[in-house]
Amino acid sequence: MNMAKTKTISPTAQLIFFKSKPKPTNFILQYHQIHIRSPPLRLHNLKISSCSIHSTIPSNPSNRNPRNPKSHHSPLLLPSLHPIKPFVQSQWPQILGGWLCSAISVYCLSKIVPKVGTFSAFLVQIDANRLSIEGLVLGVLFCVRLIANYLQQAFLWSAALRSAYQIRVYVFEKVLERDLGFFERGDGVCSGDVAYRITAEGSDVADTVHALLNTIVPCTMQLVVVGTQMLLISPALSLISALIIPPTCLIIAYLGERLRNISKKAHICVAKLSAHLNEILPSMLLVKANNAELCEGVRFRRLALADLSENLKKKKMKALIPQIIKMIYAGAVLTFCAGSLIIWRGSSNGSNIVSFVTSLFLLIEPIQMREKESGWNPYAFLRLNERIMQDVGKAYNELKQGEPAIDRLFDLTLFSSQIIEEPNAVHPVSVTGDVKFHDISFGYGQNMPLVLDGLNLHIKSGETIALIGPSGGGKTTITKLLLRLYDPLRGSVLIDDVNIRNIQLKSLRKHVGLVSQDVALLSGTVAENIGYQDLIRGIDFVRAEHAAKTANVHEFIKALPRGYDTDIGQRGTILSGGQKQRQEYIELPPILSSFVASVHNDCIAQSVELEYMLVPLWKLEGLIISFHRLAIARAIYQNPSILILDEATSALDSKSELLVRQALERLMRNRTVLVVAHRIETILMADRIVILENGKLEEVTRSSLLNRSNCYSLLPSD
Ligand SMILES: Nc1ncnc2c1ncn2[C@@H]1O[C@H](COP(=O)(O)OP(=O)(O)OP(=O)(O)O)[C@@H](O)[C@H]1O
Which residues surround ligand 1 with Cβ inside 6 Å? Predict the structure, then answer.
């Protein structure tokens, strides 16, 4: 597999489509490890067979106490890094490889520096023989060092990016596990912010991990090794050094904490900016219709200004920290030299002092300066140290500004689910479709008014119930309870007399299908949209085609440029090709296409905002209807025993109406159907009609309904 492509499915959810050349043989995808065995099925253009998914993500992060977001922090020096530890540790082969290369590079440098001195001495003596030997050795050392440096970077970036990839996948999977309430209420985190954390801040995490691996960890190792050497050479001088280290660490820790706080604010500012754009751009109709361009310009400017201010503070602090580290370094070296001079005067052992000073430099710069007399150029040495100090400062910056990103990413994974699957939940292979709502009371929050209050409803197997009522009356809420997206506060929902709390969630949502009034088309091909539930197992194309035919959408699909393989994600191309040549279509720029589409349907507006759309205005309605029928085809493919239809509120022309109605009739056949109805014709198709008002249900007859239909904004049929 050569590449994993992430495509947006909805503002809050993403699905990874693995794009690769089909591979005929068994192979393993990581990460998570998807073990693939023959015979192959097809997922997009990746050939896979039955696959078992094993989460190899270490268990540590999920074991944290979800009630206390900070409970994972251990009293380590860098507690914010604790959550990423298992992900980084799992990359140990790359990390070891990188550090080994780093050691080789340092070793070469330790040889190169004195050799430069020897080489220059032979240059002065014009000793051609020795000169060429020394030159060759120098050249080899130089080349080895270059290769080692390259490999070090390649290994460590590989470890950092793979860790970030695993973290992203882990966080996204956790986000997917969250209850619907999180996405609907937001809990203070809007979908744009979630997307920003997983994308942009995920990249910051990669930089942080790289900084950690590339600089800070080798430096720590070096500190320990050289510190031990210093202690062996002169405990007294080590004591002086030790006195300098704590205040230095304190100052650096203080500055680091400041950078961390500033970075957190900067992250929040840019996330707000991104969330605001995500909200406003698809809502251009609202903005323009309300003459709100100026107002939106001002709101954007305010957010952008806050971002500017926080980012400026961050950049200034990032620039300041390396300078302060350098200053501390220079001060420390001066203090140390003064101290050593005092001790040296009282002692005759000058060579020990030289060795010790060398070790002190080695604390920061990995050069072994054994041949002090021949090759040591103090100016070059100082320059090297300065560069290293800059690197250390830069790495420290990366680390500190990555910490808030880690915090914010892992905050998304800290939650306790309200919808908990019972340990002994059953997995019925089939259900007859008998549904009972028994004494249901439900409200969306503890202090929120009850939406449903002591509601009872029995839908017999194979029966169609039309649910009507005033807007905001709770019709959609009933459907959410049936899908167990929320649990009722009181009462129970039963399928075939089994409380749905005792049915496995996967099984429940397999037997209960939903065709929502939001025509939720996802990125991917038409076939993938129809066989959505089988994306991983592999789509059954015969079944998909049959579903499309039953839903009256087969002809529409056949007319698309690549039929069932047409990528719906590429909105611009869906209607291009031959249709474009016949100049039946007008080209709408992104903003206008979303604008026009949003008049008809919000979902289309979301989908088209990024691409040019080639659409005949007179056909736009037809396109939306085709999308409706695709959604119906998806439900037919799923073949659930119980069907929830949340009918679209928009008006259709009579031809489209007929096509959709035919598709719906076929879909509803031999199923238990609960239809949230807005059209009189649909209501008349039902076996029974119930009105939901003030949280309670009342059954009505068709004739009595026709007298009161205006109350519920029912759409007349053509
Ligand atoms: N996630 C939520 N959090 C808080 N309140 C909600 C949530 N979803 C819906 N509500 C509120 O619950 C009530 C019932 O909403 P619901 O969507 O079930 O009504 P509905 O009858 O389907 O309305 P419509 O016909 O307009 O779609 C409304 O007052 C709505 O504002």
Answer: 184-185, 444, 451, 469, 471-477
Torsional sign, CA 645, 648, 649, 653: negative
Please report whether residue 34 resides in a domain: no
Residue nearest ligand 1's atom 18 by CA: 474
Does the predicted TM-score (pTM) go above 0.80?
A: no
Q: What is the rounded average pLDDT for all residues in the chain?
A: 70
Q: How confident is the model at residue 652 (pLDDT cuts 50, 70, 90)?
A: low
Q: Pick from 380, 411, 442: which residue ends a domain?
A: 411
Q: Name the residue at shortest CA distance from atom 24 of ligand 1.
A: 471
599 falls within a domain: yes
Residue 443 Cα to ligand 1 middle (Å)? 10
Distance 481 CA to ligand 1 centre (A): 12
- CATH code where residue 700 lies: 3.40.50.300
3-state secondary structure of 467: strand
539 with 635, same domain: the answer is yes
Q: Per-residue pLDDT for 341 more than 50?
A: yes
Same domain (yes/no): 523, 512: no
**193 CA to middle of ligand 1, Å?**
24
Q: 462 and 350 in one domain?
A: no
**Cβ–Cβ < 8 Å for 545, 526:** no
- In ligand 1, the atom with minimum distance to the C-alpha of 473 is 21
Burial of residue 701, with CB atoms counted within 10 A of its CB: 0-12 exposed, 13-18 middle, 19 or more buried = exposed
Q: Which is more confidently placed, 188 or 682?
A: 682
Residue type, 297: G
Q: What does DSSP assign to residue 318?
A: H
Q: Given strand 27-29, what is the order of strands in its sheet? A: 27-29, 33-36, 51-54
Q: Which domain holds residue 298?
A: 171-411
pLDDT in the model for residue 354: 55
**In degrees, to the nearest 5, what angle opens at C-alpha 81 toward C-alphas 76 and 86?**
105
Which pair of tokens denotes residue 552?
A: 């009256």
Q: Are residues 230 and 344 in the same domain?
A: yes
Is the Cβ–Cβ distance between 520 and 635 less than 8 Å?
A: no
List the residue whose alpha carbon is closest to atom 1 of ligand 1: 184
Tell me: do 402 and 446 sit in the same domain.
no
**Domain for residue 131, yes or no?**
no
Tell me, yes or no, whether 343 and 257 share the same domain: yes
Same domain, 363 and 488: no
- Residue 603 Cα to ligand 1 middle (Å): 19
Dist. CA 705 → ligand 1 center (Å): 23
Q: Is the pLDDT of residue 575 over 60?
A: no
Number of structural domains, the chain? 3
Ligand 1 atom 14: residue of nearest CA: 474
CB neighbours of 642 closer than 8 A, spacing ≥ 6?
A: 431, 433, 435, 482, 495, 511, 512, 513, 671, 672, 673, 674
Q: Are residues 531 and 511 in the same domain?
A: no
Identify whether 582 is part of a domain.
Answer: yes
